[in-house]
Design brief:
- This protein has 295 residues and is mainly alpha-helical.
- Among the domains are: 71 residues, no CATH class; 110 residues, Alpha Horseshoe (Serine Threonine Protein Phosphatase 5, Tetratricopeptide repeat), CATH 1.25.40.
- Helix content is 60%, strand content 0%.
- Helix 1 runs parallel beside helix 3 and helix 4 runs antiparallel to helix 5.
- The longest helix is centred in the first third of the chain and has 67 residues.
C-alpha cells in the first residue's frame, strides 16, 4: 500500500512540473539568455578596458621617456592627451606628472598645479595629501618657514599616512630657518614612531646630531660639578730696604716702589744685623774756669 501511495505522489509532482514548464518556459528561456548576454558583455568590456589600459600605459611610458630626454613640451602634450582621453587612473597619474614637469623649471608653477590637485574634490584624500606634500617639497628652498610649516603641520598628524615624510621635510625647513626647537620636535616624533621606515629613522638620527651640535646646551645631561674656591694667596713680604721712607723735612718725597712680578718675588731676605756701637770710655771732667761758681 505504501508503494502505491509513493507512486501516486511521484506522478502528481511530475504533472505539476510539466504544467509549470508549459506555462513559464518562455520566461525561463529569456532569463537564461539575459544572464548569458550579461556575462558576454562583461567579458567584452573587460577586454576593451584592458586593451585601452595597455595603450595608455605605453603612452604614459613614452611621455616619461620624453621628459627624461629633456623634451618637456612633447611630454606635456602626451600627458594632456592622457588626461583628456585616457583611463581615470592614468589620467590622474598624468596630472601629477604634469605638475612635476612644471616644477622642473618653475617651482612656483609646479606647486600651483599640486595645490589644484589637493583642492580637487574628485581626487582621493590620500592623493590630496600627497599633492600637498609634493607642493611643500618644491617650495621648501624658496618659501618662508611659516608657509612651509602651515602646509606640513596637518600632514605631520599621527593619523596621517604621510606623517613621517612630512616631519622630515618640516625638520629640514626648520633647520634652514634656524628653528632648532621645531626641528628637534619633528625629528623626535620620527624616532618615537615605531612605524617609521628604518632608512628614515637613520636620517632622523643624523639630522638630530646636527641639531644638537648647533645647540650644545641641550646635550649636557650631567649636572655641573661645583668648583671649590681657590685658597687665598699668602701675603707677599718685601725686604725692609724696599719700604718707602717718610718724607724729609725739606719736603722731598721718596717715590713708592712698584710691586715686582710674581716670578721675581723670592723669599724675604733677613734684615741686616744691627750693630750697637761700643760705649766710649768716660772722660775726666774738665776743670771749671776760675771765677765761675762751682756746680
Amino acid at each position: 500500500m505504501s508503494d502505491f501511495v509513493r507512486e501516486v505522489d511521484e506522478e502528481v509532482r511530475q504533472d505539476r512540473f510539466r504544467q509549470f514548464l508549459n506555462r513559464y518556459w518562455a520566461y525561463l528561456l529569456g532569463l537564461v539568455l539575459l544572464v548569458l548576454a550579461a556575462v558576454g558583455a562583461w567579458r567584452v568590456t573587460s577586454y576593451w578596458a584592458t586593451e585601452k589600459a595597455q595603450v595608455a600605459s605605453g603612452q604614459y611610458l613614452d611621455a616619461l621617456d620624453l621628459a627624461r630626454a629633456g623634451k618637456i613640451a612633447e611630454s606635456n602634450t602626451a600627458l594632456k592627451t592622457l588626461v583628456a582621453n585616457g583611463p581615470p587612473g592614468y589620467g590622474m597619474l598624468s596630472r601629477f606628472r604634469l605638475a612635476d614637469n612644471a616644477g622642473l623649471t618653475d617651482a612656483a608653477a609646479g606647486a600651483k598645479l599640486f595645490d589644484a590637485l589637493a583642492q580637487d574634490a574628485a581626487v582621493e584624500p590620500m592623493l590630496q595629501n600627497l599633492a600637498r606634500l609634493r607642493a611643500a617639497l618644491l617650495l621648501v628652498d624658496t618659501a618662508p618657514y611659516p608657509d612651509i610649516k602651515q602646509r606640513l603641520d596637518p600632514l605631520a598628524d599621527a593619523n596621517n599616512g604621510l606623517r613621517n615624510s612630512a616631519r622630515e621635510l618640516l625638520a629640514l625647513a626648520a633647520l634652514k630657518a634656524n628653528q632648532g626647537a621645531d626641528a628637534e620636535r619633528a625629528l623626535g616624533a620620527i624616532e618615537a614612531d615605531a612605524a617609521a621606515p628604518a632608512a628614515l629613522r637613520q636620517r632622523a638620527d643624523a639630522l638630530m646630531g646636527l641639531v644638537r651640535a648647533g645647540n650644545p646646551d641641550q646635550t649636557v645631561d650631567a649636572p655641573a660639578t661645583a668648583v671649590p674656591p681657590a685658597a687665598p694667596a699668602p701675603p707677599t713680604e718685601f725686604p725692609l730696604e724696599q719700604i718707602p721712607a717718610a718724607p724729609s723735612a725739606a719736603g722731598e718725597t721718596t717715590p713708592v716702589p712698584t710691586v715686582p712680578p710674581a716670578a721675581a718675588i723670592s723669599a724675604p731676605e733677613a734684615p741686616p744685623a744691627v750693630t750697637t756701637p761700643a760705649p766710649e770710655p768716660d772722660k775726666p771732667a774738665e776743670p771749671a774756669p776760675s771765677g765761675a761758681p762751682a756746680p
